[in-house]
Design a protein that fits this description.
This protein has 214 residues and is mainly α. It has a single domain, classed as Four Helix Bundle (Hemerythrin (Met), subunit A) (Up-down Bundle), CATH 1.20.120. The protein is built from seven helices and no strands. Helix 2 crosses helix 3 and helix 3 packs antiparallel against helix 5. Keywords: Electron transport, Membrane, Transmembrane, Transmembrane helix, Transport.
Amino acid sequence: MVLSWGVLLPLGILVARFLKITLKQDWPNELDNKFWWLWHLRLQISGSVMMLIGLLLILNKPDPSTDDFIHWYLGWAVSLMGVAQIISGWMRGTKGGPTDVAEDGSMHGDHYEMTTYRKVFEYYHKFVGYSVLLLSAAAILTGMWRSNAPVWMWIGLLGWWMMLIIVFAYCQSKQMAVDTYQAIWGSNKEHPGNAMKPIGFGIRRRPENHQKKI
């Protein structure tokens, strides 16, 4: 669980939040950069495999004793919410738009048109994703406490988390949390989703006349 929720999955979240437009990308001339998607997918799959292994260990563990029930229930909650995140990712809806035109020439798609289905998915996936990440931290810390983890593990993990927090704060201050819709299709108002408010805290859209800062 430490490798899954302490390392791999937080990295996947950071990549998805801040690297939809990469530093060397010539946006808006270059759109729909798959870098963030590929690495988000790889990290989430790797982390999910580790999580499922942890879930199997939970299933093989006897009922919790009175002094470790908090960690036991936290582990269950994190695992079930993690599985729900995997399922929601599969159910994100269709893409559509000029980069995914149907055989009949239609650009219809849940994401491109920002249908109610897509909006519900984004609110759910983002809210649950950040919530379970915080919950997993509590599960990891209680587990380390129960197992009397060595000092080096505490220092290493807490140092790693502190570094992630610093990276998050830096990228957020540099306004790198760009809306997925705009990263894929640009800022032109002809795209229906650009008329809507971006979903998620701290998510921004770049102006149409955005110039890359060196």
